[in-house]
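ERR on first pass: missing label on line 2. Operator R.T. fixed the label and resubmitted. Corrected input:
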Amino acid sequence: MRARIAGTGSCLPKLRVTNDDLSRIMDTSDEWIRSRTGIGARHLAVEETTAGMSVSAARMALEEAGMQPEELEMIIGATLSADHIAPPLSCEVQRELGAVHAVAFDVCAACSGFVFALNMAQAYIQSGMYRKILIIGAETLSKLMDWNDRSTCVLFGDGAGAAVVYADEEGIRACVQGSDGAKGMVLSCAGRQIQHPFIKIAPSSVSEENTSEPRKTVYDPYVRMNGQEVYKFAVRTVPMCIQQALKQADLEPDDVDFFLLHQANLRIIESVAKRLKQPMEKFPVCLEECGNISAASVPILLDHVNREGRMKRGDRIVLAGFGAGLTWGAVVLTW
Ligand code: ACO
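pass 2 clean. output:
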């Protein structure tokens, strides 16, 4: 059996911040942001939470799928920016939906998170363990941004997307995923600082003398990025993994109706289209309105394209994610 998407949903925060709005509070311009990234606006959470937006997106997806929350057997959340370190986002969504029969857990694979979660759903469904799974990609990245760092904060936004999959004869035809931890610091966000009462004592021996100097840990809780390295990684790796997934599915790029890529940067998407020798019409985008929403980018785009009625049953779709880790993945599916 294969995982087939039965419904999608998405949710953006109410507050819409344009490039011009940003240029009033920092040294940037619509021209700089738009010409380098294609981004025109982003939505930022004020009252909204990662879980709240996820629940809204999930309800839309369930409704389209004609499924009740109690029917769900699994919920996979993909996020870097859950509201809490514990409980996981997926468990908060489970509680709010009343999906009492679902097992729920999160995956952390940054901008590839939704694609990785979809691959996991496919593996569970193929194995026969589960048949009905909700997948969520959701972020409140605005809380991970250094709003004094114009090179990163202008790129990202907040939002959530969801898809309900079920076991069917048709659906996911191929999955490819990869990671390169050696290049992890190209795009990073530090965790919390260690703060236990023994922090002033050297870890090698608590009884050793002259070891009471405070450890000089540089603590930086914000997203940091080497944009040019990320760009080089993306334009090389994304076409390669899409080609690998298409080969697995015994398809050529010409056979694909839509390529739905992680919405990091329009120039990356244009470069992938060029390398695959495909027209940009096959590469829908939502980054002009949403910015980069990491794990939420792909499911939000999928929902927008679905609700615009652009895809029809039987279409061949490629989803591709890439980002921190470094991580990347592509899925070929029949809509
Ligand atoms: N507004 C105005 N000027 C800015 C801004 C800003 N928001 N940010 C940086 N600058 C300035 C810099 O200070 C620098 O000025 P200087 O030359 O006087 O030092 C100049 O613009 C050029 O800065 P670069 O960082 O070299 O800008 P670059 O041309 O590389 O563009 C960008 C940055 C758009 C991020 C680019 O590297 C890129 O496309 N990267 C791809 C990766 C990407 O999009 N990442 C998004 C998230 S990662 C992911 O989702 C996988």
